[in-house]
Amino acid sequence: MDDIRILAIESSCDETAASVVKNGREVLSNVISSQIALHTLYGGVVPEIASRKHIEKIDQVITRALEEAGVTLDDIDAVGVTYGPGLVGALLVGVAEAKALAYARNLPLVGVHHIEGHISANYIENPDLEPPFLCLVVSGGHTHLVIVRDYGEFEILGRTRDDAAGEAFDKVARAIGLGYPGGPKIDKAAKEGNPSAYDFPRGKVTGSPYDFSFSGLKSAVLNYLNSASMKGETVRREDVAASFQKAVTDVLTEHTMEAAKDYKIKKIAIAGGVASNSALRASMEEACRRRNYSFYRPSPVLCTDNAAMIGCAAYYEYIRGTRSGWDLNAVPDLKLGER
Ligand code: KG4
Ligand code: ZN
Question: What is the pTM of this model?
Answer without folding.
Answer: 0.97
